[in-house]
């Protein structure tokens, strides 16, 4: 966004607003906009963004700059501002379209990193709105990865890394939610499959300790004590101070068992990786 306007710019905006105020229909407003310069329409967009950020006026003004003055310097500035305005009013799909258009038209521009970042967070900001379909979360992860890999030195890379980690954690959380659902209903094999995904694919998230504990619970319920003991051994090696380890330890000792890597299940391989420092 630009800084303060010049006196001439403020006068131009006032005149532009006066012209539009006399228009009663959308058709008349569009015709009136065609009499204004690109800068004047752009300033209308800035003014609308400052005073009415939740309405569509700002993005419409910026779109008019692009329509009436295509491929101009003002059109380029207006397109990135249109993307920002659309995102601000939570028109996420439209924001992604505008961001992608900017990247297609101006891939080497200094604002390309910002366009990619806006595209990414337009997915990210929708994550909490979705149910069990995690398609948007995967798209957010890919778009955030693009920011991190394509623009590692940009001011947006650090924020993208933080959001990537949170989105990754969100995916693990959804697997845990489904796994707990199966576990409560006694569908132990289905629960194990979900917790295994967390342990193997989301091991750097905050959910891994609980996933290992839930594996202990599920395997004990099935009478698979070797797997339960190995899961607890991994839990003890990596999260000994976790209350989940205390719970797993009590479950095992209550049956005369102890946490120890035994047998030759997939968990034994994870345990070997843990000892070699290849896990987590």
TrEMBL record:
It holds the Pfam family YfiO. It is found in: Cell outer membrane. The keyword Membrane applies. The keyword Hydrolase does not apply. Its main location: membrane. Signal peptide: none annotated. Gene3D superfamilies: Tetratricopeptide repeat domain (1.25.40.10). Keywords: Cell outer membrane, Lipoprotein, Membrane, Palmitate, Signal. Residues 37-232 form the Outer membrane lipoprotein BamD-like domain. It comes from the Bacteria. It is a lipid-anchor. Part of the outer membrane protein assembly complex, which is involved in assembly and insertion of beta-barrel proteins into the outer membrane. Part of the Bam complex. Belongs to the BamD family. This is Outer membrane protein assembly factor BamD. It comes from Ruixingdingia sedimenti. The gene is bamD.
């Amino acid at each position: 966004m630009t800084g303060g306007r010049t006196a001439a710019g403020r006068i131009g905006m006032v005149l532009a607003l006066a012209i539009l105020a006399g228009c009663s229909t959308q058709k008349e407003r569009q015709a009136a906009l065609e009499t204004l310069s690109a800068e004047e329409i752009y300033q209308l967009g800035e003014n609308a963004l400052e005073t009415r950020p939740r309405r569509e006026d700002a993005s419409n003004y910026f779109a008019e700059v692009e329509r009436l003055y295509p491929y101009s310097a003002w059109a380029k500035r207006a397109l990135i501002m249109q993307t920002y305005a659309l995102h601000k009013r939570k028109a996420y799909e439209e924001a992604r379209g505008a961001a992608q258009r900017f990247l297609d038209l101006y891939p080497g521009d200094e604002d390309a990193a910002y366009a990619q970042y806006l595209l990414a967070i337009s997915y990210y900001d929708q994550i909490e709105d979705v149910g069990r379909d995690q398609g948007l979360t995967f798209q957010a992860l890919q778009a955030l990865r693009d920011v991190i890999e394509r623009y590692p030195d940009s001011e947006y890379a650090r924020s993208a890394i933080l959001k990537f980690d949170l989105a990754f954690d969100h995916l693990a959380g959804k697997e845990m939610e489904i796994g707990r659902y199966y576990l409560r209903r006694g569908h132990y094999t289905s629960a194990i499959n979900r917790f295994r995904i967390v342990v193997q694919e989301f091991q750097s998230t905050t959910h891994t300790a609980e996933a290992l504990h839930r594996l202990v619970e599920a395997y004990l319920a099935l009478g698979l004590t070797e797997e339960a003991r190995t899961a607890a051994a991994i839990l003890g090696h990596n999260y000994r101070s976790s209350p989940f380890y205390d719970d797993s330890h009590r479950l095992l000792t209550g049956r005369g068992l102890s946490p120890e890597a035994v047998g030759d299940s997939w968990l034994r391989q994870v345990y070997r990786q843990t000892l070699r420092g290849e896990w987590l």
